[in-house]
Structures are given as C-alpha cells and as structure tokens.
C-alpha cells in the first residue's frame, strides 16, 4: 500500500479587537494579557478549522474554547456569524497544517477534548520568562486550557511527531503558536510557491525566549 494521502486543516488566529467600553471584566483581562505578555505584535485568539466531513461532521468544522465556556464545536450559526464575520471580520489570519489524514485525525481528537474548562491562569505558562513552567503543568486531554494550549494539545495528540508545535502545549499563547505553525507551513509551502503572512522580523527572536 502507498503512503496515506496528505490532508490539510487550518489554524485560525485573530488579532486583538479595539478596546470597547462594553467589555466584561474577564474580556478586559484577556485583552490585557494578550497585549502585554505576548511577543509583539500580539494575537488574541486561535482555533482549529477542519474541512467539513459527511453527515454530522459536516457542521463540526471549528473547534475552540472561549472565556466562560468549555471547549466545543462552534455550531451556533447566529453567534458564529456575529463573532467570525462581524466582530473579527478583518482580524483573521490562517495557516495550513499538513499531515496524512489530518482532518480525520484532528476531528477525532477534538471529539475527545470536548468539554475542557477554559483557564485564564494558563496564560501564565505562555508568558515570556515563565514558559518553562509549561513542562510542569498537565497537558492531559481533560486538563484546563486557554485557546492556544488547547489547539496545540489537539494537534499534538492527533498528529504526534508530525504536529507543527514541539513545545509543551501549556507553554503556548496564540502568538507563539502562530510562529511555530508558520515555520512548518513555510517549509511545506515553499515548494508550492505560497506566500506567508509576515509580522515584524524582530518578533521571531522574542518568541524563542
């Protein structure tokens, strides 16, 4: 038998929203954390986008966790339209993740990690100077997580050595996950002549600390 066919899923990353006086205290905390304690320019959120499957899987395409919620597939069309196409309409950035049977493997793993509680404290282990603590924090399937830690964990369990994020999942914030996923995507995309999204060049150094 030949090699399994290469497949693709996408990591979606969102830039921070402009300040809104209507934000809750939790939303203000997250905005402060992602703006002050990540490499600059920061990213505020990330999640997995899986190509539609068949049957019930046709709707299970976006897997994420948010403040005050547990991890799940985003199935509310009304809420989804507002969040993805209005609030963050021009804020999204996408990176491909290639691997044999990537969609089916990541979808299956995401099913196992539904209902994971959101943890704002997990941003501590994703902060420059404290990322080494990510090795000491549980990366088990049911452990609490913020958006980047959850996304990295799903990728690592699903793709094993083929995952584009080699560090402990709990050490990732949205920006650091973006750069690790981008490095791998660039290697795979160069052969296709693809252009990558580029931020300031000096960010790469701060991400590796």
Overview of this structure, please?
By secondary structure, the chain is an alpha+beta fold. 33% of the residues lie in helices and 13% in strands. The chain is built from six helices and five strands, in the order βαβββαβαααα. The chain has a five-stranded antiparallel beta sheet. Helix 3 (102-112) crosses helix 4. It starts with 5 loop residues before the first strand and ends with a helix. The model is unreliable at 197-209 (pLDDT under 50).
Structural class: alpha+beta
Mean of residue pLDDT?
82
The first-to-last residue Cα distance is 43 Å
- What's the number of extended β-strand segments? 5
What's the number of helices? 6
Could you give a short description of this structure?
The protein is an alpha+beta fold and 209 residues long.
Write the layout of secondary structure elements.
Layout: E1 6-14, H1 25-36, E2 45-49, E3 62-64, E4 72-73, H2 77-87, E5 92-100, H3 102-112, H4 147-159, H5 174-190, H6 203-207
Antiparallel strand pairs: 1-2, 1-5, 2-3, 3-4
Could you list some keywords that capture this structure?
single chain; alpha+beta; 6 helices; 209 residues; 5-stranded antiparallel β-sheet
């Amino acid at each position: 038998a030949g090699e399994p066919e290469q497949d693709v899923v996408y990591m979606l990353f969102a830039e921070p929203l402009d300040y809104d006086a209507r934000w809750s205290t939790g939303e203000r905390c997250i905005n402060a954390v992602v703006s002050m304690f990540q490499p600059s320019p920061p990213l505020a959120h990330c999640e997995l986008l899986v190509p539609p499957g068949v049957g019930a899987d046709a709707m299970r395409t976006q897997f994420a966790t948010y403040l005050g919620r547990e991890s799940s597939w985003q199935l509310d069309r009304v809420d989804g339209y507002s969040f993805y196409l209005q609030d963050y309409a021009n804020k999204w950035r996408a990176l491909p993740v290639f691997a044999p049977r990537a969609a089916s493997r990541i979808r299956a793993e995401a099913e196992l990690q539904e209902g994971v509680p959101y943890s704002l404290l997990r941003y501590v282990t994703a902060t420059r100077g404290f990322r080494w603590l990510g090795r000491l924090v549980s990366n088990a399937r049911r452990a609490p997580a913020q958006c980047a830690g959850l996304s990295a964990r799903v990728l690592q369990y699903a793709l094993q050595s083929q995952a584009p994020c080699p560090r402990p999942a709990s050490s990732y914030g949205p920006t650091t996950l973006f750069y690790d996923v981008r490095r791998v995507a660039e290697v795979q995309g160069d052969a296709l002549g693809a252009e990558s999204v580029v931020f300031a060049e000096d960010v790469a150094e701060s991400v590796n600390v």
